[in-house]
Amino acid sequence: MSAVHPAGTAYGRRIRLVMVVLSVLTAATLAACSSEASGTEDGPDVLRILAGSEVKDLEPMLQRSGVKVKISYTGTLDGAEQVASGGADGSYDAIWFSSNRYLSLIDGASARLSTETKIMASPVLLGLKTAKARELGWESGAVSWEQIATAAREGRFTFGMTNPASSNSGFSALVGVAAALSDAGEALSTQQVSAVTPKLKEFFSAQRLTAGSSGWLADAYTREGGVDGIVNYESVLLGLKGLTVIYPSDGVVTADYPLTLLASAKPDKKDLYGKLTSWLRTPATQKEIMTTTHRRPIVPEVRPGPEFGSAPLLELPFPNRRAAADGLITAYLDEVRVPARALFVLDTSGSMQGERIDALRRALVTLTGADTSASGTFSRFRNRENVVLIPFNDSAGQPKPFVLPERDPEPVLAQIKSYAEQLQASGGTAIYDGLRAAYREAATGGDGHYTSVVLMTDGENTDGSSYEDFEAFHRTLPEAQQKVRTFVVLFGESDVDEMKKIATLTRGAVFDARTGSLAAAFKEIRGYQ
Fold first, then answer.
1. What helix, strand, coil percent values describe the chain, rounded to 5?
2. What is the mean pLDDT of residues 41-53?
3. In 422-529, which ranges are continuous DSSP H helix?
4. Contact at 8 Å (CB) between 108 and 84?
5. SS3 letters for 101-113?
6. pLDDT by residue (tens digit) across 187-224?
7. Which residues, including other chains, have CB under 8 Å from residue 65's CB and lie 6 or more apart?
8. CA distance linking residue 302 with residue 319, whole number of Å
9. Of the residues 144, 155, 189, 364, which has the fewest C-beta atoms closer than 10 A?
């Protein structure tokens, strides 16, 4: 029997502030492959952890654990590949992601891992506005993924979800829906992925909002609405006002947050790991985790609170091979999801000469498939996507559109690569003329696509219209165009304050590539397109 209950009551409001802060912190550091969480220096008394951003809200608690912890954050796929390849050995002592399931599918990964300790749990669920849940008759009684999929196909509700190639919540949701709709037994196979793809396409036709992280998705939903609900961790949904959380009767995929010791860790670090995990699993700490973050306790001594409902959670099967998991993500990106329309506004002014224009060329080429890592493969321009490149210097250049077909995208990817490699730097910096050109372009040919703008500049505006001019122009746009987000990449001597104002005005985000890789920033942004 499925269970539903309203979210956003007193217990939910306690987590709201945490989620807003988390989403802001996430947006501020998205461009780096990994970012340091604290100034703690390395030493024999410091446990170095490579983690997903989902556990960032636990940092204040960890300061009371009695163990010095230094956490670096990275994306789930990047982290999994780093660990499996041995790249984490010596730099980190442990890893802490919301799940190790994808990592466990990579050949050789198990040899890199030692002890795994589950810390907490949170299933990935659908949260709907209470009025919409009532309209659909889902306030009580059994609700299956099949029923949810039918309502989605019929256009009876809309939802937001994170990109499965960028965020574990999106990946877990995709796995759960695919497993439920395919009646998978013990494991989700490549053949079942192929067979269920048409049903997945119907289900995700109702998706209207995407994101690269669960925190940013929740914040965007809270600020803007625009959809009837979101798919996210139960812990996130319980912190949002006016939602009814749906617990599908045919099962879920649950994050269990395993803090995992690396096999390469030295003996003194193993002792620190044991001390930290023991503290995290004490009843007092488990209760604190439950009440402050709304994740379920993992130890039997602590009874889950009433906010979690009484329905038992049936765990849906996971892919049995990496090929099946990768095939599911690929099917989502190339066939299932609403395709993207990505407009890149690119600074080619004189200050970009030399290494900077080379970095821009490399970043664009990376998105044509030059990066063969899993994260690179998934972040490339996708089948069915429309890509528009708009260079600017002392004025906006002519927009160059590229339309990727449903099959065989390689010729168009080669055209984008050739165009990128020919970019030259000269002239002034007319940032806002470039942005205006992008928003005019966004008014044409974007039906049936997610449209977004990426602005990359290495300096301040020196030519053409001003920020105030652009702001006035933006206010005159039709509502649909005003909803187009701009994701700003800080590079070189970018005017940070003005770039943040652009992101705020357009409800986008800022990615800082001033001390990191421009290609990494572009890859991270792909999770939001």
1. 45, 20, 35
2. 92
3. 431-442, 467-475, 479-482, 496-505, 518-525
4. yes
5. HHHHCCCCCHHHE
6. 899 999 999 999 999 999 999 999 999 999 999 999 98
7. 275, 276, 279, 280
8. 31
9. 155
**354: how many CB neighbours lie within 10 A of its CB?**
9
| 98 three-state secondary structure | coil
Q: CA 363 to CA 370: how far, in whole Å? A: 10
SS3 85: coil
Residue 487 tokens read as: 């994701």
> Could you give the 3-state DSSP secondary structure of residue 64?
coil
> Distance between CA 77 and CA 80 in Å, rounded?
5
First to last CA, the chain: 36
Q: Return left, alpha or beta for 257; rule: phi > 0 is left, psi -120 to 50 is alpha, else beta.
A: left
DSSP 417: H
Distances (CA, A) of 194 to 92, 174, 408: 38, 13, 18
pLDDT in tens, 436-449: 999 999 998 767 89
DSSP letter (8 states) at residue 381: P
Q: What is the pTM of this model?
A: 0.89
Which residues face 260 on adjacent strands? 95, 116
* Rounded Cα gap, residues 420 and 407, in angstroms: 22
- Residue pair 56/216 in contact by the 8 Å Cβ criterion: no
DSSP helix/strand/coil, 526: helix
Which residues are CB-contacts of 137 (< 8 A; sequence separation ≥ 6)?
Answer: none
Residue indicated by tokens 């600020």: 223
Whether residue 275 contacts residue 64, with contact meaning beta carbons closer than 8 Å, is answered with no
Task: Kindly list the strands in the beta sheet with 68-73, ordered across the sheet, starting from the edge strand earlier in the chain.
Answer: 35-36, 68-73, 46-51, 94-96, 258-262, 113-118
Ramachandran bin of 436, using left for φ above 0, alpha for ψ from -120 to 50, beta for the remaining angles:
alpha
Cα of 334 vs its chain's centroid, Å = 17
Q: Read off the amino acid at residue 443.
A: A
Distance CA 197, CA 178 (A): 8
